[in-house]
Amino acid sequence: MHYDPVDPELIADPYPTYAWLRDHDPIHHHDASDGAPPFWALSRFADVWDAVRRPEVFSSAQGLTFYFDEIGQLGLPPNLVMLDPPRQTRLRALIGRGFTPRRVAELEGAIRSFVRSRLAEMAQRASDGEPVDLHRDFSSTIPTHVLAELFGVAEEDRLRFGPWTQALTAIQNDGLRLDPDTFSGDGREAVTEMLGYFSEQISDRRAHPRDDLLGALVAAEMDGPDGSAQRLSDWDILGFCFVVVAGGSDTTASLISHGIALLTDAPDQRQLLLDDPGLLDGALVEFLRLESSVQGLCRTTTCDVTVDGTMIPAGEKVLMLYGSANRDPREFGPTADLLDVRRQIPRHLAFSSGPHFCIGSHLARLQAKIAFQELLSAHPGIVVDTGAGQRHQSAFVRGWVSLPAYGLAG
Ligand code: HEM
User: Fold this and answer.
1) Which of 66, 134, 227, 400 is the most exposed place for a label (fewest CB within 10 A)?
2) How remote is the CA of residue 292 from the centroid of ligand 1, in Å?
3) Could you read off the pLDDT of 85-124 as tens digits, one per residue?
4) What 3-state DSSP class applies to 231?
């Protein structure tokens, strides 16, 4: 079977190909015949799980795509997702001083009132006979609003924030394909503008301390290995802002849209959820397992390494196929491809594992939980037409651009 991670047919439905890879070619080597750089792909749960937990062998420091210099090409600040321990560990600990569970929990009220306002607008559209798009009108608006709230972006600047998240998503769709030339244009401009904006905000917090996330990151301090006080530099904070805006918006939006798409195809599972809202937390993990927003990201080998009897030489790109690992029957049993909102899931890879485990997983789940609580209570019969929807064309991020919705309560 031919495996090409940017083939639109594969992107439409990668799961039969993943099943074939897991069974016949679990340590797949993609040669450079189509002009793209060669890479390897791990598709079984156990292999991906082990690899992402060994950063000394599978490094993130050469970027996460098929190319070697995405940080240089985009002019990005070095950031924790593209660093290895021990530097990444220290940076992450300092960031954790500012980005605390309490700060996330405090967003609940703001998230709920925003979600309700979107639902009221959608209901109005539906009753006016206008088309409703679940992804455009609802799912994608929530993380943008929430991140602006989290960063304390002033009301008058919020209109600029939305286009930045869209441009960064577009980079993931175009720039992270196999053509490095597409790193230019709108995406690069958006990155420059956004980093300029956050630089000003950071200087402002240094001059006028404030109790918002940026203020807390500026103030964060801990003891270094030699006992001296360590703090985050402006560049460290900018790197964090970049990863959060690039990695925290579309992933969360797609979790919400995919969840409704999965429930559209499984009315019995929807009924279970409506009958017992206590199942929602587990159902969100099940949605992420079946439709992982991050399908895969690369690592680079630091030495020759043997995985399941196959030797991968040093200096090669290895794609961690989270989207395949999360459907591996070796881990999840014979029903791995089916939605089961009551499934017990002791471990999964939708947020990765090991040192780079998603630092925003609580915030993502909080947003999705509120979105589902409010959406299913207002419109329990909502369905989407995936055939008429439009997907991102990305090897790395699985998500929607547009997803028409029907069945809203009148
Ligand atoms: C459903 C939504 C989300 C999914 C599926 C997701 C998935 C992931 C994954 C797979 C990684 C590991 C990357 C790697 O393997 O190299 C990651 C890392 C990260 N995520 Fe998320 N993410 C989500 C939402 C968020 C949100 C809302 C935020 C921030 C507010 C966020 C911030 C980060 C950061 C900063 C990292 C880097 C952590 C590190 O390298 O130490 N993510 N995420």
Assistant:
1) 227
2) 12
3) 999 999 999 999 999 999 999 999 999 999 999 999 999 9
4) strand
Please give the Cα distance from 296 to 14 (Å, whole number): 12
> Domains in the chain, start-ordered, CATH in brackets?
8-406 (1.10.630.10)
CB 405 within 8 A of CB 302: no
Q: Which of 64-68, 126-130, 174-178, 349-353 shows the lowest per-residue confidence on average (mean pLDDT)? A: 174-178
Give the model's confidence band at 405: pLDDT under 50 very low, under 70 low, under 90 confident, else very high. very high
SS3 346: coil
- Residue whose CA is closest, atom 36 of ligand 1? 358
> Is 80's C-beta closer than 6 angstroms to any atom of ligand 1?
yes
Length of the chain: 410
Confirm or reject: Cβ of 44 under 6 Å from ligand 1: no
Query: How many whole angstroms from 350 Cα to the centroid of ligand 1?
Result: 9
Atom of ligand 1 nearest to the CA of 95: 35
Task: Assign 173 a pLDDT band (cuts: 50, 70, 90).
Answer: low
Residue whose tokens read 């079984």: 44
Phi, psi of 189 (to 5 degrees): -60, -45
Secondary structure letter of residue 294 according to DSSP = B
Q: Atom 17 of ligand 1 has which residue's CA nearest to it?
A: 358
For ligand 1, the distance from its centroid to the CA atom of residue 298, given in whole angstroms, is 14
Beta carbon of 61 within 6 Å of any ligand 1 atom = no
Locus of tokens 């959820």: 273
